[in-house]
């Protein structure tokens, strides 16, 4: 059922794009130019067949959008994604046998025998 609605939704989107592109341009943006009426919506443009078809396709597009949203929400589990991420524990880090000499975290090599930890961060230029 969801796939059928999705196909109808895509066809409606393509039809809506086509109908909007077929409409006559008024000049300026949002119908502000050419021929009185003024404002974003004039009474003259609302009565055309393409205008009515645009409204019908727009309403149908919104209905299929809401239907797909309801179907997706009903299929979703009651657990949030954040709840699933927070409740899971990270797997224990395993040491890689191909990298000898790494500590148990696998991040830093073990300290050398004479290392006191106060060495400079950059190597000395000798």
Automatic annotation (TrEMBL):
> Which GO MF terms are attached to this record?
protein-transporting ATPase activity
Indicate how the chain sits in the lipid bilayer: Multi-pass membrane protein
What GO cellular component term, any one, is given? plasma membrane
Q: Name one GO biological process term.
A: intracellular protein transmembrane transport
Q: Where is this region: Disordered?
A: 90-126
- Transmembrane stretches in the record are 53-74
Where in or outside the cell?
Cell membrane
The protein's UniProt keywords, in alphabetical order, are:
Cell membrane, Membrane, Protein transport, Translocation, Transmembrane, Transmembrane helix, Transport
Offer one Pfam family short name for this entry.
Answer: SecG
Q: Specify residue ranges for compositional bias: Low complexity.
A: 96-107
Q: Which InterPro entries match?
A: SecG
Tell me its family.
Answer: Belongs to the SecG family.
Q: What does this protein do?
A: Involved in protein export. Participates in an early event of protein translocation.
Q: What is this protein called?
A: Protein-export membrane protein SecG
Q: What is the lineage of its organism?
A: Bacteria, Pseudomonadati, Pseudomonadota, Alphaproteobacteria, Rhodobacterales
């Amino acid at each position: 059922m969801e796939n059928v609605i999705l196909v109808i939704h895509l066809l409606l989107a393509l039809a809506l794009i086509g109908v909007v592109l077929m409409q006559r341009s008024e000049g300026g943006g949002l119908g502000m130019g050419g021929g009185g009426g003024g404002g974003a919506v004039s009474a003259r443009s609302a009565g055309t067949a393409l205008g009515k078809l645009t409204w019908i396709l727009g309403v149908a597009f919104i209905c299929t959008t809401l239907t797909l949203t309801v179907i997706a929400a009903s299929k979703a589990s009651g657990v949030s994604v954040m709840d699933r991420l927070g409740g899971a524990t990270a797997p224990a880090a395993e040491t890689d046998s191909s990298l000898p000499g790494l500590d148990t975290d696998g991040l830093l090599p073990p300290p050398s025998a004479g290392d006191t930890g106060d060495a400079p961060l950059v190597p000395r230029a000798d």
